[in-house]
């Protein structure tokens, strides 16, 4: 395995800026890695070596010409296929957008390019970001780099595995109910959902607009922070993006690297997030990490959040309602697939046959559910009630943050399950989101980092930290401190403990 791919983004950036390594070399090393292992993992839906290497060479030329470049200039970046890009197709994991080429770049991608990052490919995901395992992708599931028979979580399993398996040092994801944080937990990587509106959603193929947020994925807290700094900020193309002077997340992460910074931190543990179905190994690792925090002088405070119990139910009304409306635009006319029935058909039959062929089961289920929840006679009973619950959850968070600085929970109630284990039962997937959904309903930031493996299956366990809106930097500071403690405990960074895929060769794609 090339040494270059094992560097963190921060380390690689330093070698690029000193001239020790060129972006072309770094990009080629990652493309080679993808060629070697992605047949087995299926983390990428599209790569284009010519395009990526040309972009890398351009950065090298600009550096050689003495241009002042951003800190991450030349570093390869994987992009979740929910973000539209001009360089490769953008499908959001759906047949209905197969081969679709966008005429513009999503703002997060445009900002990354402007900062000199090199797009290395589009990553696999559950169709339209609906799912918790990446098994709902129309292009076959992604496999967990820790164990090929396990799911990587979802919907952003591709981005999480891309960074975890050293196919890219950095990746972009989207998080509507946990799709950055839960895959991070299940793959032993780091993922952050910023404050709602902190990063522009322009060019993110919309799932549920009041919940969607774009964020960074990487192997270390500092690396996610560096990418966060690049993509954050106001965008006139997204009216929900915040005009706010964000502090440097990288500075916060660097400042937190000394665990002594945890002294006096008030950490809330929400009773209702310590679910009955918590896997014993997840519970054990979580309790251990609380003990590590306490040993550094952090104070653990038990929090009651009575309305969290209804979060999953409210989310699975609000999300389908918004999704059914957002997905109405796939009408066979404006985007992607068109199925014409024998004999030509009518406008209606072309539309309905296209949607029948282009959407997968989970997407159809949510469109039907959402359309029903929004229908005239039921709007107040379902959508209206769910919005009221959302307000109550926001109030639970507000009173919690009167007493604590951050909230900690297991990121997901279980470790990665076997492919197919949920047998197409959507409820089992939905319940895996119980710990991540509240943050989306409240618009607050959340970070997941690995804290060890569960003794029963040897698979990664994630810790989730949440902070009040606008306090993303607090997550990076605390997350970085916890990461240092875990590295100290284990004698090596967590990402270095993943079973080596060095020998993996191009295997069967998992379709
Ligand atoms: N698993 C959740 C869902 O299926 C999360 C989706 C997401 O964050 N995009 O809706």
Which architecture does the CATH hierarchy give at level 2?
Alpha-Beta Complex
**Count of spatially separate domains:** 1
Strand content: 5-15%
Structural class: alpha/beta
CATH class: Alpha Beta
Q: The CATH topology, please?
A: Amidase signature (AS) enzymes
Radius of gyration: 21 Å
User: In this structure, how is the largest beta sheet organized?
Assistant: 11 strands, mixed
CATH superfamily: Amidase signature (AS) domain
Order of helices and strands: HHEHEHEHEHEEHHEHEHHHHEHHEEH
Count of strand segments = 11
Tell me the helix content: 25-40%
Taking pLDDT < 50 over at least 5 consecutive residues as the criterion, the unreliable ranges are 502-511
The span between the termini is 26 Å
**Spatial strand arrangement across the major sheet:** 1-3-2-4-6-5-10-11-9-7-8
Mean pLDDT: 95
Present as ligands are:
glutamine
Number of helices: 16
The general outline is globular
Describe the fold and architecture.
This protein is α/β, with parallel strands linked by helices and 511 residues long. It has one domain (7-308, 391-506): Amidase signature (AS) domain (Amidase signature (AS) enzymes). The chain contains 16 helices and eleven strands. α4 (107-114) links the parallel β2 (76-80) and β3. The longest helix is centred in the C-terminal third of the chain and has 24 residues, at 380-403. The radius of gyration is 21 Å and the shape is globular. The two termini are 26 Å apart. The model is unreliable at 502-511 (pLDDT under 50). Bound molecules: glutamine.
């Amino acid at each position: 395995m090339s040494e270059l791919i094992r560097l963190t983004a921060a380390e690689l950036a330093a070698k690029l800026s000193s001239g020790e390594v060129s972006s072309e070399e770094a990009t080629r090393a990652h493309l080679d890695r993808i060629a070697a292992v992605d047949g087995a993992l299926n983390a990428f839906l599209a790569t284009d070596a010519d395009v990526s290497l040309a972009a890398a060479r351009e950065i090298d030329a600009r550096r050689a010409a003495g241009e002042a470049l951003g800190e991450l200039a030349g570093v390869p970046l994987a992009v979740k296929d929910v973000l539209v890009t001009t360089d490769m197709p953008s499908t959001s994991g759906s047949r209905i957008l197969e081969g679709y080429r966008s005429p513009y770049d999503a703002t997060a991608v445009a900002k990354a390019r402007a900062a000199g990052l090199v797009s290395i490919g589009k990553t696999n995901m559950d169709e339209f970001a609906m799912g918790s395992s990446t098994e709902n992708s129309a292009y076959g599931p992604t496999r967990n780099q820790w164990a090929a028979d396990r799911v990587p979580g979802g919907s952003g399993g591709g981005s999480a595995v891309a960074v975890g398996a050293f196919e890219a040092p950095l990746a972009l994801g989207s998080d509507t109910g946990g799709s950055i944080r839960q895959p991070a937990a299940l793959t032993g990587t780091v993922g952050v959902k910023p404050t709602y509106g902190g990063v522009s959603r322009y060019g993110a193929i919309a799932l549920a607009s009041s919940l969607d947020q774009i964020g960074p994925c990487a192997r270390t807290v500092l690396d996610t922070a560096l990418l966060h700094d690049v993509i954050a900020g106001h965008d006139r193309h997204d009216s929900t993006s915040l005009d706010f002077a964000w502090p440097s997340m990288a500075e916060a992460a660097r400042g937190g690297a000394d665990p002594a910074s945890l002294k006096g931190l008030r950490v809330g543990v929400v009773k209702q997030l310590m679910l009955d179905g918590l896997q014993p190994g997840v519970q054990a690792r979580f309790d251990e990490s609380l003990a590590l925090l306490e040993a550094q002088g952090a104070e653990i405070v038990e929090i009651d959040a009575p309305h969290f119990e209804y979060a999953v139910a409210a989310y699975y009304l609000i999300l389908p309602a918004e999704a059914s409306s957002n997905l109405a635009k796939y009408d066979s006319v404006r985007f992607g697939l068109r199925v014409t029935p024998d004999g030509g058909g009518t406008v209606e039959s072309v539309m309905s046959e296209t949607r029948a062929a282009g959407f997968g089961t989970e997407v159809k289920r949510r469109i039907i559910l959402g359309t029903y929840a929004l229908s005239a006679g039921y709007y107040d009973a379902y959508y209206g009630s769910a919005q009221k619950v959302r307000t109550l959850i926001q109030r639970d968070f507000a009173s919690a943050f009167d007493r604590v600085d951050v909230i900690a929970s297991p990121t997901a109630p279980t470790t990665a399950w076997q492919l197919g284990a949920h047998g197409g039962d959507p409820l089992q997937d939905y319940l895996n989101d119980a710990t991540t959904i509240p943050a989306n309903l409240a618009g607050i930031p959340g970070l997941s980092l690995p804290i060890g493996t569960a003794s029963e299956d040897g698979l990664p366990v994630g810790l989730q930290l949440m902070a009040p809106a606008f306090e993303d930097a607090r997550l990076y500071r605390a997350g970085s401190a916890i990461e240092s403690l875990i590295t100290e405990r284990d004698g090596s960074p967590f990402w270095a403990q993943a079973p080596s895929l060095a020998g993996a060769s191009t295997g069967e794609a998992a379709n």
